[in-house]
Amino acid sequence: MEHYVSIWPVLLLALIHFYGTRLRFLAGVPRSVWLSGAGGVSVAYVFLHLFPELNEGQEHVEQAFVGEGFLRHHVYIMALIGLSVFYGLERKIVIAKKEEQEKKGEAKPPAGLFWVHIGSFGIYNALIGYILFTREEGPLTQLMLFSIAMALHFILNDFGLQEHHQERYRKYGRWLLVLALVAGWSTGYVVELSHTLVVLVLSFVGGGVILNVLKEELPEERKSRYWAFALGAFLYAMLLLSL
Questions:
Q1: Which of 6, 26, 9 is nearest to 222 (CA)?
Q2: Measured CA angle at 213 (ends 171, 140), to 5 deg
Q3: What gap in Å lies between CA 11 and CA 9, rounded to an integer?
Q4: Which of 187, 40, 181, 188 is nearest to 123 (CA)?
Q5: In this predicted model, what pLDDT tens digit does every residue of 107-156 receive, in sequence order?
Q6: Is 25 within the bounds of a domain?
Q7: In this structure, is residue 183 part of a structural domain?
Q8: Distance of CA 238 to CAs 173, 226, 232, Å?
Q9: CA separation for the pair 61, 75 (Å, rounded)
């Protein structure tokens, strides 16, 4: 495929950051069935499409990193790192909000922590942008499936970041995420990562996706719709398995 094809998914994901939080029908408690369903789709993609792809790429990683024991499982280590990084950030934000609530009566993380949090998601977005560029080398269906899963995942992230950071996210955060996404995609024109590094990036993103979905679904106060999550996962799983 020509390298202009993936610009359309990039534009779609950018528009989600611009307008995602304006979809008021998705807000509120109990959690929207559409958000829970979107989470199910994202997780189904990671387990049934992304991880099997990473398993195939493990051979390239083993050739690049010769070693024994845990050194032979870099792909899964990177997925664990991705999950752990975003779990740590989420815990830090939640604790900071509670502390600010007790001190100032306002559940809003400090500005410094906001920039750290948004910066981490900026890196995350840049990696996804680069992956979109590399997806042009494969079948169009591969690019489409990844784009759909990431679009729904971005909607979940937007609502989570909006809830944590409120006006700061609307005023600054979403712009940074859009710039990071476009920058990551554009980097593909000037920097060609080895297949090994692409596999490791995919693995890190996969771990991040799982954590970022589950952290939005699990809190009891969200009153999430398990049936919607399960239905979204099942339907997308059926689609992936049929292709």
A1: 26
A2: 90
A3: 5
A4: 181
A5: 677 788 889 999 999 999 999 999 999 887 777 888 898 999 999 999 88
A6: no
A7: yes
A8: 35, 18, 10
A9: 7
